[in-house]
Write a structure and sequence with these properties.
This is Glr4114 protein. GO terms for molecular function: ATP binding; ATP hydrolysis activity. InterPro entries: AAA+_ATPase, ABC_transporter-like_ATP-bd, ABC_transporter-like_CS, P-loop_NTPase. The protein has 262 residues and is of the alpha/beta class. The protein has one domain: 3-Layer(aba) Sandwich (Rossmann fold). The protein is built from 9 helices and 10 strands. The longest helix has 16 residues. It is globular, with a radius of gyration of 19 Å. The N and C termini lie far apart (55 Å). The site of adenosine-5'-triphosphate (ATP) has 10 residues, from helix 1.
Length: 262
């Protein structure tokens, strides 16, 4: 009898992760998994530690206790091995360098760290700009000349830049911190579609989104985690939200003041 193949490790996993800032415990023994191919959306009230989770996922922060595993290996060991799983981050504010052109921003890491000729980097930048729906002529512009939505897309292009001369330098996990915050409903829909399409077209295997916007939650999530006071309080899928009687879900999605979230 043939055996089924071993289950693939999650692309990223938190095991009992705790994180405090000063005396404030933000994450309290948090367990979570993101599977290959999965789109996870993390929601929860302001200040509950969602951005902290993303910063732990990309190695910008280290847990006080517990483990962050990338592809089954501790994040630190992964980094030592040149991080076979590439993690791209799209920050809440597009976080572009104002004094650099769009091209220099998108190609920043390749200009700094690769031996690729500038013309080749320019070509790659234009390719990525097209992938995020921007006209490649914008490459020569400065960030200040772009709209908020365009700047956001430039930051997407930067997150999916890869060095074709480095084996396995492919972004596998994309992290989005409030990608539609401050955008009008139409611009939000464009960004939500882009998040989905980048995954469908193979620019990442999996992604994690943090958002407060209900349209973004409903349109980008395969699975949703509701976090409060450092722990997962509910886990489910978007079609379950409306009929769900979980008190955290009802309070959060109905915007009620009374309930377990204080
Ligand atoms: N580097 C830091 N130093 C001190 N406190 C911090 C730091 N980073 C985050 N905090 C605190 O940790 C808590 C959680 O912050 P975090 O940004 O992760 O929350 P969030 O859920 O993403 O909030 P929001 O939805 O408002 O963006 C907040 O009280 C914040 O002030």
């Amino acid at each position: 009898m043939s055996q089924s193949p071993p289950a693939r490790k999650p692309i990223i996993e938190f095991r009992g992760v705790s994180k405090s800032f000063g005396t404030q415990r933000i994450l309290d023994g948090l367990d979570l998994k993101v599977h290959y191919g999965e789109a996870l959306v993390i929601v929860g009230p302001s200040g509950t530690g969602k951005s902290t989770i993303l910063r732990l996922m990309c190695g910008l922060l280290e847990p006080d206790s517990g483990e962050v595993l990338l592809g089954g290996l501790p994040l630190q060991a992964e980094q030592l091995q040149r991080k076979p799983i590439q993690v791209g981050m799209v920050f809440q504010q597009a976080a572009l360098f104002d004094s650099l052109t769009v091209e220099e921003n998108v190609g920043f890491l390749l200009y700094e760290h690769s031996k690729l000729p500038r013309t080749k980097i320019g070509e790659l930048v234009r390719e990525k700009l097209e992938m995020v729906g921007l006209d490649p002529v914008l490459a020569r512009q400065m960030p200040a000349e772009l709209s908020g939505g365009q700047r956001k897309r430039v930051s997407f292009a930067r997150a999916i830049m890869e060095d074709p001369t480095v084996p396995d330098d492919e972004t596998q996990l994309l992290l989005y911190d409030e990608p539609t915050a401050g955008l009008d409903p139409i611009a939000s829909t464009v960004i939500e579609n882009l998040i989905r399409s980048l995954k469908q077209r193979g620019s990442c295997d999996s992604y994690v989104v943090i958002t407060h916007q209900e349209t973004t939650i409903r349109s980008t999530a395969d699975r949703i985690l509701l976090i409060y006071q450092g722990k997962v309080r509910w886990e489910g899928q978007a079609p379950e939200i409306d009929a769900c009687q979980d008190p955290y879900v009802r309070q959060f999605f109905d915007g009620k003041i009374d309930g377990p979230i204080q």
